[in-house]
Amino acid sequence: MAIALLKRMEDQRMWLTVYTYTILIDGLYKGGRLDNAQEVFQDLLTKGCHLNVHVLTAMINGLCKQTLLDDALALK
């Protein structure tokens, strides 16, 4: 549902900030949707968005909770 809402917002050309994506990534991890969270993060990278400490913290938190420590360490 959250991914569908994000796509709809993008289709309507709403201005989404990195904070919007951070909340989405954090919620996806907390909901056990690791693949979706990583997909959203990759979209951010592809779009060339400036990643701040908050989005990186959400990613690292989610990866560590899934015991994917190597993936968390690989984030740069």
UniProtKB/TrEMBL annotation:
Record keyword DNA damage present: no
Gene3D superfamilies: Tetratricopeptide repeat domain
Keywords of the record: Repeat
Transmembrane parts of this sequence: none
Stretches forming PPR repeats: 17-51
InterPro entries found in the cross-reference section: PPR_P_subfamily, PPR_rpt, TPR-like_helical_dom_sf
Top-level taxon: Eukaryota
Stored Pfam families: PPR_2 (PF13041)
Stored NCBIfam families: PPR
Entry similarity comment: Belongs to the PPR family. P subfamily.
Protein name per UniProt: Pentatricopeptide repeat-containing protein
Gene source species: Clitoria ternatea (Butterfly pea)
Taxonomic lineage from the root: Eukaryota, Viridiplantae, Streptophyta, Embryophyta, Tracheophyta
